[in-house]
Amino acid sequence: xxxxxxxxxxxxxxxxxxxxxxxxxxxxxxxxxxxxxxxxxxxxxxxxxxxxxxxxxxxxxxxxxxxxxxxxxxxxxxxxxxxxxxxxxxxxxxxxxxxxxxxxxxxxxxxxxxxxxxxxxxxxxxxxxxxxxxxxxxxxxxxxxxxxxxxxxxxxxxxxxxxxxxxxxxxxxxxxxxxxxxxxxxxxxxxxxxxxxxxxxxxxxxxxxxxxxxxxxxxxxxxxxxxxxxxxxxxxxxxxxxxxxxxxxxxxxxxxxxxxxxxxxxxxxxxxxxxxxxxxxxxxxxxxxxxxxxxxxxxxxxxxxxxxxxxxxxxxxxxxxxxxxxxxxxxxxxxxxxxxxxxxxxxxxxxxxxxxxxxxxxxxxxxxxxxxxxxxxxxxxxxxxxxxx
Amino acid sequence: xxxxxxxxxxxxxxxxxxxxxxxxxxxxxxxxxxxxxxxxxxxxxxxxxxxxxxxxxxxxxxxxxxxxxxxxxxxxxxxxxxxxxxxxxxxxxxxxxxxxxxxxxxxxxxxxxxxxxxxxxxxxxxxxxxxxxxxxxxxxxxxxxxxxxxxxxxxxxxxxxxxxxxxxxxxxxxxxxxxxxxxxxxxxxxxxxxxxxxxxxxxxxxxxxxxxxxxxxxxxxxxxxxxxxxxxxxxxxxxxxxxxxxxxxxxxxxxxxxxxxxxxxxxxxxxxxxxxxxxxxxxxxxxxxxxxxxxxxxxxxxxxxxxxxxxxxxxxxxxxxxxxxxxxxxxxxxxxxxxxxxxxxxxxxxxxxxxxxxxxxxxxxxxxxxx
Lengths: 389, 371
Prior knowledge:
The structure holds two protein chains of two kinds. Chain A contains 16 helices and five strands. Chain A is an alpha/beta fold. By secondary structure, chain B is an alpha/beta fold. Chain B folds into two domains: 227 residues, no CATH class; 119 residues, abc type-2 transporter like fold (3-Layer(aba) Sandwich). Chain B has a four-stranded mixed sheet with strand order 2-1-3-4, sandwiched between helices. The radius of gyration of chain B is 28 Å and the shape is elongated. The mean pLDDT of chain B is 91. The chains are: A alpha/beta, B alpha/beta. Chains A and B meet through helix 2, helix 4, strand 4, helix 6 and helix 7 of A and helix 2, helix 4, strand 4, helix 6 and helix 7 of B. Strand 4 of chain A pairs parallel with strand 5 of chain B, so a sheet runs across the interface.
């Protein structure tokens, strides 16, 4: 215990003296998490600019435009004289879609021909495009059913009956576990753990890496009475406490910001979050033990963790990735934690449902921790492992 | 010493530093293949969807056949056991669920609206919306067939009946990314981030060591010499990404090369000046690696590309331009993906020029102060 306290004090003393490391350990994560939440605080994309060209200029076209304008996600912008002016604005990103109501719109509707409206989307800006398309096609569907019902009435059908006949099957969309869709839940709450994984690895690599860089590994070991297990425990305790303390705040925060989106138990999700953080740290230690070079360890930890969100399957489903990408995803703690997040926290599944993912994380922790420990024990305390930059 | 001499010395220092070499030249090359890999197929191919047929009728079976034929849905038939369905959703084996409620067939026969429920896992937005879109399409096709039959049975002639089917057609044209490719959309933006971040980290790695040794070059010539070298390195990476890697990945490359080159030069000078400022702030070799790795994700989302700028809080809407990546992402995507001219990306170009001037001025002061 005395050795553990001594080693811990040595670590705390370092943090007190090294303002950069202190900032990294204590301040970086809350700042970035608050920033991410702030970015997505609107919850849903809103007021996306769409150019409207009304070549028909009739009461019917204006009615259609009014209906489209009522959709909350888009903001119609008038004043485009020609299609080419609107496409120019599209390329300049002043608008992200062009909605064109052609000249014979009203005539087509009254003569019973199919009336066409054209929506040109800047699909390179995919969030813009999909949001705009969703809103405009919703408006067009509503307008279409209305027109269809009118035509059927002209064939002699009654009001209610005609509406049913124009749309005999209606699809009711029920988003499970995330009403909205709310991007605070979809992106902010899942990007933040990706930041935790990156920082957990950086902190673990940094804590041990600097002892090798500075050639102080032996001093570190002696302070801990010669026990590497004790030395590692004391060294990693401050970052483990800080990171997992922040993890608890994050879980509490999202459960309160979007209570309808989370049906799972906060404590269970926090415990799994702790497991992911510690596993990421163990992988960090393993990477450092293999490279025995602080700079190289950080570079590899960055390569492993920085693109992890792209591979995690949260934004782009794992099943749609090539096999190689799926294999890479499977060695990232974040992938398994996000599965737990979706199952346990969002879908409210019982803990038995997520045991497979928990076991994978535990296995990664054990393997990375054990090999990291053995490699460090074998190599880290020899002078030839010190000083590499 | 002249600017050229300082520039040359910087090149030599880089070639002698394995770590800096790896970050300034190797990392970009590796990431140019590694980052697009998960999006190789570009689209969500088939969403695993569970079909719960509570009606078990001729109509529901017709619907089931049509759903099975839909290319983007991987339909798995389920019995009406709520436990099995819940388990599948919990387990993440399926991402969407279609429920054909009992009474579906009777409602259709009786001329009432038959409802069809589509529930998708809100955690998987992309897959969920894909499933919803396809089910709606199938429902509309089936519905159109029913409307057609009924209209004809009421005595409408075939043309009249057909006209009542789709009175309003929304023709959607996807410009610039015609297949709605996910990688096609996201990767060019991420390329800008990779160019900036590898440069910032590589430069701070090199200069951090010099600072530790008390050998950080001093004076305006030294500053401008380093600026020149780092700008050239950034430019080489940028041209590799937007002239070579983008073709290897088979993304669009529409803009004129001259526009790309001019924009790239301004962007690269700007990020090189940014890197030199950080090099003055970070006092150790590894500090840049420690602090900058984690900032890439927020930089991407605050740029107003993946997450619409119009939905950012007001302060961030304006403040996002402080980061060169914001102008860089919109400018490079504009030129290479939308075929924009320099005039079309004038805003981004002006922002980068202002940033570059400010950062070079700050850099000159900061590097001169050491004398």
